[in-house]
């Protein structure tokens, strides 16, 4: 083993080896991989080798697509076969909602270029002659299916060896039987990795340790929310029926997934592999992998498998005649949302995670590709927000993670509705007025561990969502909340907002160097500012208020707390001229907005609220009711006269009661997140994480007015200048969608002009006040003119859509300035 390397990768499973391979492809050959046992000894050796392209996530979908393409060309490149059987992949549907899910997925597939077909039951039978289409009595009837012709299954060990061969040929070092025991920072800022074979010092470390992710994390002081869950599959003996079909010239059958019965089935040596995602599969190794657990498996649990086996026997009757050869029950890494952790570790420089992979064979190619890009170039090449490890925060306790990971495993095949809110490990984080809001009918959702009221059920209405891809039970109630906000006054509890205070003599210049807009110069002014990547993509969106001399208050998305905090902290200058404090949990936030907002607030404060004294885009520290030190900001995300009140958290209950007492005569009421979504889309306000991502620059996001190219240097400026010179490839538009009766756009729908793909929607909804179905989208610039006619595909149906002017509701912002 070398004593110094530019990068050390810990873990020799498919994910670590792929990362090593891709680092060499980026030209970094001074890279070393350390494996405590032998390559593939973790979960990789016993993986079933399926490569499903299907994934509802825009990020993960792209990673999977890259992998499948890479694996096809690897044998020619490395001389090592990988056993890739391109059998195709058939996902059955037995109900309309499942079909809706597939159709929703097709939007994502279209936008990322994954080939697929929606097929009829008759076509299912033609592709898969051994299937029983169902009678609707004993076996559910198949109503259709999603077919991916390009994927299939692979030999995970051979694949790992091919990647190793490719990496080694380019100079990488692979050390087996080399266990990382501890890590330390050197005085020069490098990492010293201590192993059973001595030390190695490196610039960057990648953790790709599968089931050991938590232990590896602990060596770095990180609480990594990856805990494995038991996962089983059954290997069957030869099937006479299958053999007969194949002997008669039938081609290898596509991997079959009966999602509604939660299992997959594929051929294996004239027999079958059946893999279910069962209820009750336990998390394992939450406190670490026992030293005694080597290349081992858990005992099979037939009881847990039985319901799936029975369902599969009805669907594929020849299974009844097959004996079981063996049951494989191994640990499969999971995270609370089921997506992996790929990207920088928080709080540490040059430590990277490629952990928590539950479809690791499928994702390894893409995850290695993008992580290498990130390490070498400083930024990933695609939008990686969906897998960024910093999407979780310090709230991922052991019990939270166990509960969520077991749920994520169990729910792999449940229908993932766009308005789904999973139940495990809740409530975790609540605003102080949680109980009050529950009594007011709150129907709760969860984001970043926080409970957030999605909508409020009026008296007599059940506090329950009926999840759907279409308009659902809460539609009219959300509409009422929107109208209340536009016609009277509403309150939104946005306590989860990420909030930082930035102080010190260097604060202004430092913030200014991070964002494309000019940070406010005059105390009391507010500016919307975007921090960019060096490629010019939108990293974060900050509402920056200058509270006083050398003092700024920085607010950003609640789900971005660790992501933003980590970035800001890592960017702090060394000269201590700037101090950063995260005040997220010490300040609550209420939005009070609507035409009557001023009257309500005026009852509770002596601060003059007229336009001259307190104009739009200004902020003051005032008293409201009994609360002192309230940062009152005249901004909001819904486009009404209103204030965001950021108050010391201990005032939450008193302030809330005072607002409702004062607002009673003005029609005050609560407004939830779903209404906020509709209201902000009516104003064309972009949401960080969906509309604003590192994939698009502020020019593409049509946020030109928030970019000051001549203000002095800022991160991403060079890339923006190059883009301006070369031509901005997309523009962000608001569309009215015609002909919608029950399925509004929700984001990730493809847009077409004259049959050609010209863009993608990033959000959509019914605009309850405008009375229009709306979408926000990136389109090629020639289709961005007001009035341009496009088509948008929603759940498989193309609808006419026309480009509207920015902010279709109150385009002149009269209400904000009222
Ligand atoms: C039964 C089963 C079936 C599956 N089927 C599929 C499938 O069909 N398709 C699919 O995509 N995925 C499948 N998976 C999941 C897949 O196996 C994993 O996602 C994948 O193998 C993870 O790879 P990895 O490299 O992250 O982890 P691992 O393969 O577990 O590798 C991690 C490595 O890190 C090493 N390590 C840990 N700590 C240290 C240390 N301190 N020092 C040095 N080395 C260390 C370990 O020894 C290990 O070799 C399946 C999993 C199971 C359990």
Helical percentage: 25-40%
- Tell me the Rg in angstroms: 27 Å
The main sheet comes to:
8 strands, mixed
The set of bound ligands, ions and cofactors reads:
flavin-adenine dinucleotide
Q: Categorize the overall geometry.
A: globular
Please give the oligomerization state of what you see: single chain
The N- and C-terminal alpha carbons lie at a distance of 70 Å
**What's the rounded overall pLDDT mean?**
97
Poorly predicted parts? none
Q: What class do helices, strands and sheet pairing give?
A: alpha+beta
Number of strands: 35
Hey, roughly how much beta strand do the residues contain? 25-35%
**Counting H and I runs of at least 4 residues, what is the number of helices?**
18
Description:
The protein is of the alpha+beta class and 818 residues long. Helices cover 25% and strands 27% of the residues. The protein contains 18 helices and 35 strands. The strands form six sheets. Strands 1, 2, 6, 7, 8, 9, 15 and 16 form an eight-stranded mixed sheet that branches.
List keywords for this structure.
single chain; 818 residues; alpha+beta; 8-stranded mixed sheet; 18 helices; 35 strands; 27% strand; binds flavin-adenine dinucleotide
Give the secondary structure arrangement, pairings included.
Layout: E1 4-10, H1 14-25, E2 31-34, H2 58-78, E3 89-93, H3 96-112, E4 117-119, H4 121-127, E5 144-148, H5 156-169, E6 173-175, E7 180-185, E8 191-195, E9 198-207, H6 213-219, E10 229-236, H7 240-247, E11 255-258, E12 263-268, E13 271-276, H8 302-315, E14 324-332, E15 341-344, E16 351-355, H9 360-377, H10 398-410, H11 434-439, E17 442-447, E18 450-456, H12 475-487, E19 489-493, E20 498-503, H13 507-514, E21 526-532, E22 538-548, E23 551-556, H14 561-571, E24 579-582, E25 587-593, H15 597-602, E26 619-624, E27 627-633, E28 642-648, H16 652-663, E29 668-670, H17 673-682, H18 717-726, E30 731-737, E31 750-753, E32 756-767, E33 772-779, E34 789-794, E35 797-804
Parallel strand pairs: 1-2, 1-9, 2-6, 3-11, 9-16, 19-29
Antiparallel strand pairs: 3-5, 4-5, 7-8, 8-9, 10-13, 10-14, 11-12, 12-13, 15-16, 17-18, 19-25, 20-23, 20-24, 21-22, 22-23, 25-28, 26-27, 27-28, 30-33, 30-35, 31-32, 31-34, 32-33, 34-35
Helix pairs in contact: 1-5, 1-9, 2-5, 2-9, 12-17
This protein binds flavin-adenine dinucleotide.
